[in-house]
Amino acid sequence: MEASEDELDPLWGDLDWAIGAMFYMGFDGTEVTPQIRTLIEDHHLGSILLTTKNLISAQQTATLVKELQKIAHEAGHPVPLLIALDQENGGVNSLFDEDYICQFPSAMGVAATGSPELAYDVANATGKELFAVGINMIMGPVLDVLTNARYQPLGVRATGDDPQEVSQYGIAAMNGYKDAGITTCGKHFPSYGNLEFLGSSLDMPIITETLEQLSIGPLVPFRNAIGAGLDAMMVGGCAIANAGMNVMHACLSNQVVNDLLKDELGFNGVKISECLEMDALSHDIGVRGGTVMAVESGCDLVLLCRSFAIQQEAISGLKLGIENGMISKDRIHQSLKRILGLKSKCTNWNQALNPTGISHLSTIHPEHLALSTKAYDKSITVMRDKGHLLPLSNSLYPEDELLLLTPLVKPLPASAATKVISEIGSTEQDKAIRSSIMNGEGVFRELGRSLARQRHGKLLHTSYTANGVRPVHENLINRAACIIIVTADANRNLYQNGFTKHVSMMCSVLSPGGKKKSLIVVSVSSPYDFAMDKSIGTYVCTFDFTEAAMSALVRALFGEFTPSGTLPGTLRKSRKVQKSRQHWLVESWNKDRDQVPLQALLKTVEKMSPSNRVCPLSGATAASFELMITTESDEQIEEEHFVVRNSSTQALFGFCSTYIYNGIGMIGAIFVDPAKRNLSIGHSLHKRSMRSLIAKRGIKKLQLGLGLPCIYLGIPMSDLTEGGRLKRWFANNGWDILCPRLLYTLTIRNIANWTPPEGLLQSIQRVSFAFDLIHGHENAETVLDHVRANAGPEVLELYRLALDDSKSCGVVRAKSPVDGALVGTIIISRQGTDLATYLPVLHAAGERVGGILAPVVPPSPQAGIVLQGLALLGIRQNKAHRATTCVLNWVQGDERDTLLGMGFDVLDAFEELSCKPEEFNGPALT
């Protein structure tokens, strides 16, 4: 039961303590390191995962665990640490000690016994051993359903592919752990049973089933375990993509953690993320952002396995997420209550500081050893024995030689072979021994010795590799009467499959004496290697290759017991899916940190833009977005920019710039790395920027697109298909797209060959407007008054900057012949102007570009001819400055046709959107 707010220790009111309780971390080292001490003492870390890198023996584990708890107690932790490890048995054990800790079969091996009661007994024994050394949580049971068993690396860690059978054995194991005093954590939600792997560690494995398929299959064991009282759930680090769900990392998805696990399946226990240090996750998102996503999605504990630097990064990321308003303090306390409720089930200070230890392990070890032998014997499965070769004592003559062929595999993490490696020294001889063992020669050495003892020395043993059947193998096969081939995941290590098939063919050929050679294939990992291949007449499965499993295999082969195991499950095929969307941590722009990554992002976006389409970012630099302008106090410019970044690699995935000009809040640019599009990065940036703008005091208007910096005047519409998609996107994010203002960038690409249209000069002369050119601020006050009255504040600021740059810019004025009042203005710029920083099109349009910028001509019967006169003077000035290309920027919709008639072409088109803050109806307000 969750504690109420009133029942919580006042210490938890300190947010740093509450944040520390939400992390679940590991470390490297068999003793307490300064890093883990710092995490416990200074960052108030509340949960620790121990792995094979931490554990040497039962005694050392008990000492280490007690020391960790002692540090927490002395540091003022109100409750003990949650200390967990993976102890799935089979090939996945973090703790190995042949004197005190018993080895039991894998989950599939236990299921092969056909006895849920035995599953309970094995789990209960494992739980008691862990409890004795101070462990209070186990990362289990595995509840995945192998819907594609043949090619999945999860393999024998799972029970099988029958959802009901997985439920039955999973719940039995869960109850066994809980009755031993250990809390449980089901994994790997929503399922690792049918993952598609894209080949790289940076590619996220993908779940292939639809929601309907998940519901009737893989989700069944999770739903049933929840109903039976599962304490915690680990949510996997995999992608899901189907018609009903599209996420890139399950443990970071609100759809998975909150909607599916909590709401649909009704799980109210502790939700734990997959390790955020996994390559695919940290490279795609970054640890800081991933941490916030995990908590935002509903995870209570965020797992980070080893790196102290990354762990600190995650803590700072969560704090930043709270500061940004993405995560509320109430959300943190909801998780805290669940975590404290979990700890109350499995630990207290008296228990944590006084584990029962080695003396208790000595007492229960004989009983557990007998249970181990029983479980392994019952798990050995003979799928086929067509030639009645078993037991070998009945089919081999005493003088016959037996050949054992074994693959090169790495020792299991917790095994006698690994222990030997850890004890080898550093001499050249020691290194040679270490190399020999690590390349797999030693893994099946004891199996060979055991078989030799049974055969009184009549045994030949050698290994095989991807080099196939070599002359040495042929010679040994010719000598032997019976061959045993060991395979370990032959469906994924295809050389084993090919080798076995080749030897099988050789054995089927009659020997000179007229007798076929006997062949026995033993799968020591996935039983699906040759489950469906009936050409392999005798096929035996052990489900793991621990020393205990190999010992049971020898006893089975020589008839000391009759194998009674059965193979769980059937096989299903996988389908491809796609990557997906997420919510992203948005951070404020930091010039020192983000300037170089932004420059790289700009280059990437420009490079990936279609060659036949204008990219508004062409010519832009990181400096283009930072105005840093001091202006009049009543027209103060504020700017605030946001990024989505990978804090681990420092790369930017997206950028958004915002400005406030005299009460108008504007988005000046928003763009995303093309490789990261359709993952909701833009949505997250937009939401964060709009929330920031709306929260500012005095905001009277919101605007999408602006003239300074003049990068995006609005939604780009050069490509109607892409523009239409963007309009729908902004409409879905709250903008009114019904009444946009059309803005254009025009160009004359070869000024030298341009001539005024016939009659243009005469028309301008007839109206008698006076045109002149001014530089600098002298006599400029009337210009600024004119712009202030007839254009937006960003255009006014553009004129100020042009007047500041008197060497490269000037302003053409059009005056009324009646009273001398201004009826139009325009900026003219030459190459090298400072304005080009904020108008990158002046760089991108060509090598020698002259600018005619921001025409301000109020409506009147003669506005068109005034605009043409201003443009004409601008073209002449560009020619005089030896420009080859002319760009006319910030042209309003009703002015475009007038200027096209002069010979300009459209370079780019935009739709500027605007609305009042109270009318904005986007996600930023929810």
TrEMBL record:
Extent of the signal sequence: none
GO BP: any one term: carbohydrate metabolic process
SUPFAM superfamilies: (Trans)glycosidases, Acyl-CoA N-acyltransferases (Nat)
Domain Glycoside hydrolase family 3 N-terminal: 33-341
Pfam family, one: Glyco_hydro_3
Molecular function terms from GO: hydrolase activity, hydrolyzing O-glycosyl compounds
Biological source species: Amylocarpus encephaloides
InterPro entries: Acyl_CoA_acyltransferase, GH, Glyco_hydro_3_C_sf, Glyco_hydro_3_N, Glyco_hydro_3_N_sf, NagZ_Beta-hexosaminidase
Protein name, as recorded: Glycoside hydrolase superfamily
